[in-house]
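Annex B. Sample input.
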Amino acid sequence: MKNDFIAFDLNSDGNVDASEVRKEFKGLSQKDISGFFIAADTNEDGLIDFEEYRNASLAHESGDLSIEDYTYQ
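Annex B, continued. Sample output.
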């Protein structure tokens, strides 16, 4: 999980913000990115830290968080 988080954290500041997600997943809409943040950003600071990422991953059925799991269908 830590390696997956590090891949999102493009500026290595220990947090993932919407611009980093947008750079990694260019095809996602703003609505999809918002869904991902609503699910994972539990303290609502606009950033996802490793603990939030880990908790969202563990809450996910397979234990492997994927942004596609939070896109609107």
